UniProtKB/TrEMBL annotation:
CDD domains documented for this protein: DHQase_II
Pathway field: Metabolic intermediate biosynthesis; chorismate biosynthesis; chorismate from D-erythrose 4-phosphate and phosphoenolpyruvate: step 3/7
Function: Catalyzes a trans-dehydration via an enolate intermediate.
Lineage: Bacteria, Pseudomonadati, Pseudomonadota, Alphaproteobacteria, Hyphomicrobiales
EC number(s) recorded for this UniProt protein: 4.2.1.10
Enzyme class: lyase
Name this protein carries in UniProt: 3-dehydroquinate dehydratase
Species in which this protein is naturally found: Stappia indica
């Protein structure tokens, strides 16, 4: 079986669809997961969300141990505060896409300095929920290139 893609979601993303829809849209996290699974085209995918920093770190460690094909992570508020998540992600050797539903660079200054970007292969921001399937497709392509090299 192929190595899975991990799609990890941080705090408050369980509230998608109802939380500030003018910023995050009305798409629910369950709908985002369905979009990701469709984009994966049958490739194994671990889709998870937590409001707890330690769980996200544990899932990154799991992705490392399982030699995951790649990680798509929307760390949400942890993007700007969690050195612990950054340190975990730095250990992951595969493609890593940092994803944000909104364009964080058009928002308040506090959202302009991502810790995760320091280790991400690429960053997707501002595509709304549609950024998720784009990120999954990118991970599949990057993983295929890596495997062929």
């Amino acid at each position: 079986m192929s190595a899975p893609i991990y799609v990890l979601n941080g705090p408050n993303l369980n509230r998608l669809g109802t939380r500030e829809p003018e910023i995050y849209g009305r798409t629910t996290l369950a709908e985002v997961e369905a979009m990701c699974r469709e984009a994966a085209g049958g490739h194994p995918l671990e889709f998870r969300q937590s409001n707890r920093e330690y769980e996200i770190i544990d899932w990154v460690h799991e992705a490392i141990d399982r030699e995951a094909a790649g990680i798509v992570i929307n760390p949400a508020a942890f993007t700007f505060t969690s050195i612990a998540i950054l340190d975990a992600l730095k250990m992951f050797p595969g493609p890593l896409i940092e994803l944000h539903i909104s364009n964080v660079h058009r928002r308040e200054e506090i959202y302009h300095r991502s810790l995760v970007s320091r280790t991400a292969t690429a960053v997707i921001a501002g595509l709304g929920a549609q950024g998720y399937p784009v990120a999954v497709g990118a991970v599949l392509e990057l993983a295929a290139r890596r495997k062929a090299a």
